[in-house]
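Step 1: inspect the first sequence and its tokens.
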Amino acid sequence: MEERLGGLAHMLTTVFLSSFAGFLVRPVMTDVTVAAVCSGLNDSCSLAVYLTGVHQVTVGLGTMVMMPVIGNLADRYGIKALLTLPMCLSIIPPAILGYRRDTLFFYTYYVIKIIFDMVCQGTVDCLAQAYVAKNIHGTQRISMFGVLAGVRSISAVCATFAARFLPTASTFQVTALSLFVGLVYMRIFLKERLHGDDEDGYDGCGDERMLAEPILKNAPTKTHVFNNKYSSLKDMVALMKNSTLVQALVVTFFVTFSQSGMESAFLYFLKARFGFKKNDFAQLSLLVWIIGSISQLFILRILVSAIGERRVLSTGLLMDFFNAAILSVSWSPWVPYAATALVPGVMFVMPSIYGIASRQIGSAEQGKVQGCIYGVKSFAEVVAPFVYSPLTALFLSDNAPFYFPGFSLLCVALSLMIGFLVSLQIKDVPSSLMNKTISSASNEVA
């Protein structure tokens, strides 16, 4: 089993435990937030929506700066070392709500979570992507990105199923325990590198050779694209010289902008429009993640082999567009359940982007490129609440300019369409052409 997973079993276990904790609290957080900050028996209030938006903006600003830095440091000091502090800090916030969930404790949790999430949020996923890119070469890399995403989806299935039956207090206690077990497991079992420390000794050809070499013009072989003395900001500027990577980052922005908008609006929309509660959220999420895990583990690699990463990306974005558009006009509680038929497209998008981006840089610098991707994602998460939180609060209130409770979801769909149009501009670069570029650069230096 270890060999079939390319030696990634310990990293996948760490990701599972961390993701399980994150997904476990999602179905209950809307109810907990509304109960803590909204008066009376209201199913929603503007304050709850705006608190979610403030959290997204503040954390997004922090991670926008921190993710490139963390990626840079991971290349220098190792992924295992960089995982330790964020995984330690992430245990504290759910432990607070596991103790009590009244208004005072909720705001204590809220402040501490914002501070810690500026460092912790997305770190495990970012470094796990870099770990896969460093240790897996050639055509297996995109498949393993899919497996990594599939493991997260399976963790979401398990977490959502557990949240369906766990009491609210136990939900947060189990979350803290899962994070602690993940930290201990990572420190004991995770290996920094799976194939030795000398990447230049890797015996590969074709696409595998391409991944081990720099592709920037005038860059000598067996050297790094980045200067080790550069700051993370200069690393990002250096990446901008690669047009394919720029296009991938633009798509990343619109995808994350849309997903953040969906996160801000969707659950509050369902609660206000159809009276959804914890069990309803859990059932819907369970269905979504079951479909998503099957898609990422089994369907993604088949599609990538058949039509290529870029076409899979565009197909996923188009399906995501239709999903958001249908949800925006939901007229009955069964519509969100029916729309899960389009979930596979949603699940294909980010693994395809990771695969396209990782092909543009050497394996020794994957921390930097993944850090830049997550920096762009964080920037999108900063911008999104300024648009979607006011829209959601306005159109779910009695003061809406016209009756359209799902208007913010329609805006999500339009944003996804922009990402789809940009994805059509990404060109599939054959391995032979990439190797020719590398050889030319090497000859010029010689």
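Step 2: inspect the second sequence and its tokens, then contrast the two.
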Amino acid sequence: MDHTITLEGFGVRLVPLAAAHAPNLAAMVDAELWSGMSVAVPDTTEAMTAYTASAIATPGRAAFVVLGADDGVVRGSTSLYDWVPAQERVELGSTFYARQFWGGATNPACKLLLMRYAFEEAGINRLALRADARNARSLAAITRLGAVHEGVLREHRIAPDGSRGDTVYFSILAREWPDVRDRLLARLAEEA
């Protein structure tokens, strides 16, 4: 998907992911941070360059690098993917941040910007989020958003080490968006 979407607010700026971001992204990635992803850890510039090239080339995916709005520091990456406009649905994920941005305003800010774009500009009715069942940190973050737990797809993913993982699915519908938006705005107000 060739996208030119740029989103900014709440201290972050999301711009289209590019190969030039690979060195900074690779420097923040390790096995623990990458836990629950379905591709090998891209912890070298070469591996991250391949990862970014794949993300950029994937049909129906808008991949972003997350920057600090004031300083331009690379904080991580996130995507809207499996985008099917005719069905008014998209998934939000493939998200990772450098550890110093865990637990603060970065993730809620990015989620707010991406969801606001999806629901209010792109006309999406259903936004899904998913995580490996072993990834407690991601599951807690998704739950805190107010997303509805839909179920578990058993042995849905093969991890880079060959193990099979269950995928936990959540969703937010357009009619639920105002409540989710208000929760995110309240969290960001607390962080400020």
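Step 3: confirm your contrast with the notes below.
The longest helix spans residues 106-121. The domain at 7-191 is CATH 3.40.630.30 (Aminopeptidase).
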